Amino acid sequence: MALSLSFSFAESAGTYTTSVSPQYRNPLTGAIEDSGGEEKEALGQGMAQSTVSGVGLVEIDASGNVYATYRINNASAMSSISFSTSAGGGFYGVSAVNTNTVGNSADYRIKVPYAGAPVKCALYVAPMGREVIFFMTSAGLTPGQGDFVSTIDTSVQAQSSQGSESAKAEEAKKTDDKKTEEAKKAEDKKKDSTKKNSKNAKASDSKDKKGSKANVSNKTQSTQNKRYVVYGALVVVIILAAAGTFGYKKLIK
């Protein structure tokens, strides 16, 4: 159960409020370790629930260390308070620090192996005249610290968050710049293509005009050549005719 609880918690640095469930039985073994035994289970469970507040504080620092704060009610009637925790095996003792006392309630902060780790509490109850043992488990994390006193430097988390946002903004800017550059390249390529097509069209038009002029010139030259041939032929005919006439006259004489 303790191991499954550990996976239900976030692990990012910060302060969180959590739901605390006091239990008369050991959540790992199911055994009752209080001297009241099985016969006093109902009484012991009721006493545990009235002694511990249903809301606690979980703090996770930048190094990953986890601290849990529990609020003990009716503190004036309690003394010799000690805490133990477990990483899934046996319980081991941890030191507790009284972080705040308001009215008849006292807050105790301890270091735990992970958020949601089971905690064992032993305290002397004056009206009962004996030590009482019960357990606590936690579930769920809600960002914030409620009315608890936080004992870790949350500025580390804030700086980390700001750095993360800055990195995201920088990455977004790089992406936008890249898109702008690609759009500019595409536009320049389009302009170059348009210019090239226009240049090719002008060259083709010029070539067509030159070809047309050459064809006209060739046709004119051909016409003139034909005229020269005709004129030459006429001259030859005239010369032959004249020569024939002259020869005929001489023959008659």
Report on this model:
With 253 residues, this protein is of the alpha+beta class. It has a domain at 2-153: Immunoglobulin-like. The protein is built from 3 helices and 9 strands, in the order αβαββββββββα. The protein has helices at residues 2-6, 41-51, 155-252; strands spanning 14-23, 55-60, 66-72, 78-85, 92-94, 97-102, 105-112, 119-125, 130-143. A 9-stranded antiparallel β-sheet has the order 5-4-8-9-1-2-3-7-6. The radius of gyration is 53 Å and the shape is rod-shaped.
The strand order across the widest sheet is 5-4-8-9-1-2-3-7-6
**CATH hierarchy: architecture of the domain at 2-153:** Sandwich
How would you spell out the order of helices and strands?
A: HEHEEEEEEEEH
Category from helices, strands and their pairing: alpha+beta
Give a quick rundown of the structure:
With 253 residues, this protein is α+β, with helices and mostly antiparallel strands. Helices cover 45% and strands 27% of the residues.
Blueprint (SSEs and pairs):
Elements (H helix, E strand, L loop, with lengths): L1 H5 L7 E10 L17 H11 L3 E6 L5 E7 L5 E8 L6 E3 L2 E6 L2 E8 L6 E7 L4 E14 L11 H98 L1
Antiparallel strand pairs: 1-2, 1-9, 2-3, 3-7, 4-5, 4-8, 6-7, 8-9
Main attributes of the structure:
253 residues, alpha+beta, Immunoglobulin-like, nine-stranded antiparallel beta sheet, 3 helices, 45% helix, rod-shaped, disordered N terminus
